[in-house]
Amino acid sequence: MRNNFMIKLCVFTFVMLQLWCSFITFTKPYLGINLAYTPEQQWVISKLDLEGVSSQLDVSVGDIIIEVDGMNPNDYHTVKAWHVIEQAHQILLSRAGQEHIVQVEMATLSAFTIIPFLVEMLCQFMALFLFVKMRHSLSARLLLLFFLTTAIIFMSLGASIRGDAVGKLLIVSFIAILPVVFYHFSCVFFREKGEIRLRTGFIKALYAIAALATVVRLYVYFFNTPFAYTMLQLESPVTLLLFIIGFLFNMYILTALYFKFRKQQSPASTIVKTAWWSMLISFTPVISLTFLPQVLTGSRLLDGIYTSWAILLFPITLAYLLMSDQVHDIALVLRRFVCTGLIATLPVTLFTAIYMLFFHNSVDMEQLLFIFFGTLSLVAVMLYAAEYLMTRFEPYLFPRKFILQSALMNISRRLGSISSFRELKELFLVDIVKTLQVTGGAIVFQYNGETEIIHEGDLDAEEINRLLVSQSLTASPGYTCLEMNNHEDYTSYLIMSRKKTNMRLGKEELRWLGLIANYLEISLENLHLINKLKGRLKELAARLPDESSAKDIQWFRKIMFDLQEEERIRIAADLHDTTMQDLFFLKRRLLQLGEKLERSPENQEQLSNTVNFVDMINASLRQSCFDLNPYLLSEIGLVQTVRTYLDKEAYTVPFALTFNAEQVQLIETKDLQVQRHIFRIVQELLNNAKKHSEASNVRFRLAESDSLFQLSYQDDGVGFLHADLAQRQIGQSSGVGMEQIRSRVQHLGGQLHIVSTKGSGVNIKITLQNEKEIPA
Hints:
A hairpin with a 5-residue loop joins β14 (about 750-755) and β15 (about 760-770). It is built from 26 helices and 15 strands. α5 packs antiparallel against α6 and α15 (about 400-415) packs parallel to α18 (about 505-540). Helices cover about 60% and strands about 10% of the residues.
């Protein structure tokens, strides 16, 4: 509760100070009239600041001030406290024995008003950002305090130079305390980020001294005004000197840490190096060009308004280090800044010289320096950020390049999902044709004297084939042909026609197409090798021996069958989710169309036939999905699934189909994986019967005893010799046959018995031991 009250009190005080300082800054002009009290007890103008509006008034050094706003100068608050004339509207002065009145216009915006305000707003934004994002971090709260301290300094700057006591109290007090806040933050920051512990025992004493000094200033500035000028004259150089000493002390701490960790490749060394460089770059301008010359000579080389903004680089860098777990190499960052600065120097120098040439009568050195360094900084930052900006705005600056790069990324991401040559069209060719805006494109394969063309769009496949045979495709003006693979197994080409505007592809598009061809070349080669390996694996799986010596490679059979099942399930799901859904919506559209058509018998008959044909296709696909994924096994069991499957097939096969099952309850106790293998064996036996048996009757029988399961198959067809079975190769016919059946039986640990001769049919018995489990 107490903490909330203190926070609210601090926020209220800060808002009140902000309103007061802003009121003084934006409503009162900065005059810059400095006075001296002569032995003759007269107030005489001793100095006119060039930055003030006094240069535009009819006042000169040596003028005697008689009245300020109708008051005796001794009674005017800024004269009495600071020996300056500020916040005045009318001045009565004497020059060469003649009196005249000087009217002061209302305040106008200038660099001395705008720049501190913008820097203050940036500091407040960073403080608010840290409070919202990282309020629970102690180092973040201290960095927030650093930003607020800097914000108060810039907030009070305008009021201070206008002779306001509140502004002078704030700026002197917070400049003195800024190095203490920074050191306090450094102690906590390095402890959190790098487990580096610094001495903190004297920090409270420094805060106490700063608070006591503020109380003394408060008393003198507001309650002992005649002594305020003397105290300010003594304290100003001391405050600047303390600031410089505080900066050097912090640099000493960072330097000591740098030498301690410079040989270590650790986050702590990178953080120390980054903090050291950012602090050096941030504070060097204001100290070397403003504070130090002010202490040593009483005058500044460059006004603090132009140098103090660089201080923000340091806390912003620390805010980045706090919020990011990734620290960039500071040497690389500095090298890039130096290079961009050197590149920007020449054009900025030429621009400044031209500006001075055209406006030499109205420009002074400070303005030229501001123009030079400000423009140099802006150009250097723009060059440094050019890569990032070009990337962000590439869709607007280079839309064609952006489209090509986006398409390249999409295509490259799909490389991992391609599993067959058939997918090349959907995954690659459609996007390539659409991106290049050509009339058509093709991927061509030549192998074993044959040519296969996968094309998309308006492309004449026969013409492509004719040009390939005549070896004149690459020289054809109507096509762009890139050869991808060329070896003894096959040759592949990527072919694009002209653009829809009848123009050929440009250089940028050809380079992009070359990258696509390189990606496709790798993908096609991988597909070729994968397919070749699959063929050899199938052959190996079909020819595995059934002796006991083959048990150590049973895992291979399991992997092969698992892969087959996964692929079947995937294909079944794709058919159900795509083609069958499309047929469903097609049927609905046809029925809706039938309601709108003229209800003539001829139209209704044609529509009815079309709908029936769609239903037939849908039923055929549904049966194919069931063949691929016999989901009924888990719902109604093996026996009923086999019975359902054979009953449906009985309507289409050219022979009588019979099925018997015994001891059904024992059969259904088998593992689902075993049931799936048995169902696949039934499928393969029936497929072989349809293709090769020429039988009139085919019988299936399932039987189960306490120790033995038996699957029997019998037909009265043409039969075969065992020698013919031994010579059959994987890849012939449908690719599944007796070899696959034998492999599944061996995987299940069973026995396969085949009795057959030419012309006497086939009798197959498969027996499985119940106590055996499928090898893992």
